[in-house]
Amino acid sequence: MSEMTPYVLVLYYSRSGATATMAQQIAAGVESVPGIQARLRTVAPVSTTCEAVDSEIPAEGAVYADLDDLRNCSALALGSPTRFGNMAAPLKYFIDSTSSLWMNGALIDKPASAFTSTSSLHGGQESTLLTMLVPLLHHGMVYAGVPYSETTLLETQTGGTPYGASHLAGTRSDRSVDEHERALCIAQGKRLARLALALHAMRQEAL
C-alpha cells in the first residue's frame, strides 16, 4: 500500500467468524472504488485476569490495530458482535484508549460507519449499531449508514438496517452471511469509500 493512498480502516472484533466475514465484504466494497484501499485490523481479546498477555500478532486473520491505523485513516468501518445491545468489550476497550486522538481532533470530518452480528433476529442489532455510533460522534466523525436506495434493505429477511450492515448468525453462530447481508456489506463499503475520497479532498484543500 502506498503511503500516499488514502485508506478505510475496517476495524472489528470477531469471536465466531461472522463479523470477520462481514469486514472482508466491506473491505471488498471499499476496494471496488478506484483511488482508495481498505486496511483490515482487529483487536485483542480482553481478560478478567490482569496478568494475561496476548501475543502481539494473532495466530490468524488481521493483525491488531494501533492508534496510528486510526489516526491516519480517511474513514472508519467499525464492526462487532452484539453483547447485550452494545459492542463487545475488546472493541470498546480499544475505543476507550483513543482519547489522545480525540484531544487532537484527529478524526474530525472523517466518515464512519458500523456493522454487527447477532445470534437472534431481535438480539440488539439496531441498538448495537446506534451505541457504537456514540463514540464516533464524540470524535467528530461523519456517520454514514446504508440508505434505502439500496433496495436490498427492503428484500432482506435477516440482517440489514439503515444504521449499518448486520447479520443473523443463529443461536449456534453457525449461519453463514447470506446474499442479502453480503450485498449490504459491499454497498456500505462502497459508500464509505466514496465519502472518504470526497472528505479527504476537502480536508486537503483546507490545509
Describe this protein's structure.
This protein is an alpha/beta fold. The protein has 7 helices and 7 strands, in the order βαβαββααβαβαβα. Strands 1, 2, 3, 4, 5, 6 and 7 form a 7-stranded mixed sheet that branches. Helix 5 (125-138) links the parallel strand 5 and strand 6 (142-143).
- Count of DSSP-assigned helices: 7
Largest sheet: 7 strands, mixed
Shape: globular
Helix content: 25-40%
User: What's the average pLDDT?
Assistant: 92
Percent in strands: 15-25%
Number of DSSP strand runs: 7
- Rg result: 16 Å
H and E order: EHEHEEHHEHEHEH
- The stretches of 5 or more residues where confidence is low (pLDDT under 50) are none
> In whole angstroms, how far apart are the ends?
24 Å
Q: Helix/strand/pairing class, anyone?
A: alpha/beta
How would you concisely characterize the structure shown here?
The chain is of the alpha/beta class.
Keywords for this structure?
seven-stranded mixed sheet, 7 helices, about 210 residues, 7 strands, alpha/beta, globular, single chain
Topology at a glance:
Elements: E1 7-12, H1 18-31, E2 37-42, H2 67-71, E3 75-83, E4 86-87, H3 89-95, H4 99-104, E5 111-118, H5 125-138, E6 142-143, H6 152-155, E7 166-168, H7 179-206
Parallel strand pairs: 1-2, 1-3, 3-5, 5-6, 5-7
Antiparallel strand pairs: 3-4
Helix pairs in contact: 1-7
